Amino acid sequence: MRILVTGAGGFIGGHLCPALAAAGHELRRSAEGCDAIVHLANIAHAHASPAELHRVNVEGTIAQAKAALAAGARRFVYLSSIKAARPEDAYGRAKSIAEQALLRLAGLEAVILRPPLVYGPRVKANFLGLMRAIDRGWPLPLASIRNRRSLLFVANLVDAILRCLDAPVQGKVLELSDGAPLSTPELCRAIGLALGRPARLFPFPPALLRLVPGAAPVVESQVTDDNAIRIALGWQPAHAFEQGLRITAEWYREQGG
């Protein structure tokens, strides 16, 4: 297939494009002559203003979908977020609005993918920060957290995207995960095991942690339900969580931590 990947230079695009090429797909620089579009080019965090999130994640997504239709490309795989399922901030609301607009766009074969936190080689932001903190032996006030969070190894996400390029899943919203969710303390200990460094966790009231700006990702629960994609495509994560985390830790070590 001839495929345009928007946001190809990002974390996920950097894994997706080589996989597409290896599978025999032809990568294009514009929608003209394409069979499918994979739209990754969104603001991927909640720190931007609501106006900017709407301009890029909503208006930009709709404009790209209309351009795809005008160029004759009907299949449109959109990387949304699990935050669109129950929007609690401007980022989640923008993702949800974009999803609804795509599903209403006549003639478009929209496939919506909702990943949870994605990790893997070249990961950035909070996950990388947590790895560094554990690797450096910093005490973390996370032992008392009793949440549940789904995760997704980037290679598992790439596999799902490839499966959705021509499968009969148009008009569907599909959530993804590596499998069973983990609590934040379980995740920290798993990262420590992968790095060969014990996670130094101490108890601290989660209610007080919630008052810290930016602490929600480590305190709150966020669980995906991947039954729909498993049923529709027979999809299963190609890499177990432990394997994905080990690969991520090896990359981290190769970069010098």
Structural description of this entry:
With 257 residues, the chain is α/β, with parallel strands linked by helices. The chain is 43% helix and 13% strand. The chain has ten helices and eight strands. The protein has helices at residues 11-22, 50-70, 90-104, 125-135, 154-164, 184-195, 206-209, 216-219, 227-233, 241-254, and strands at 2-6, 26-28, 36-39, 75-79, 109-114, 117-119, 151-153, 172-175. Helix 4 (125-135) crosses helix 6 (184-195). The longest helix has 21 residues, at 50-70. 37% of the residues are buried.
DSSP, total strands: 8
- Assign a percent range to the helix content: 40-55%
The largest β sheet comes out as: 6 strands, parallel
* Rg for CA atoms: 19 Å
Calculate the mean pLDDT score and round it: 95
Shape: globular
Discrete helix count: 10
Low-confidence stretches: none
